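JOB MANIFEST
job_type = single_chain_structure
chain_count = 1
residues = 107
[input]
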Amino acid sequence: NDISFCPITGITDKRILLASHIKPWRVSDNNERLDKNNGFIFSPTIDKLFDIGLITFENNKTLLISKSLDINNVKSIGIQNKKIYENLPNENRIKYLEYHRNYIFLD
């Protein structure tokens, strides 16, 4: 019984949830592309922010927000820099998160 929800927004409606690669498909090998640990389930706004590097996560589930994202937009989205999102599944995802922080995230 796999319950899918966005660990950031809590949205559970599967019709609007997206599977988001951590290490992008275009730079992943075939094993990484098929690895269920190379992904998160996010709501569309969070997916977009993550995909283009405006947010990322530390290994301990702490959200990092790019300085290039305007503070008013951050407030409107409802996310909080340095907040720990306990529901973010990070097990077996550390190598992918490190790739995302180093190569995708816009510090």
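[summary]
The beta strands are 18-21, 39-42, 55-57, 63-65.
The radius of gyration is 13 Å.
exit_status = 0
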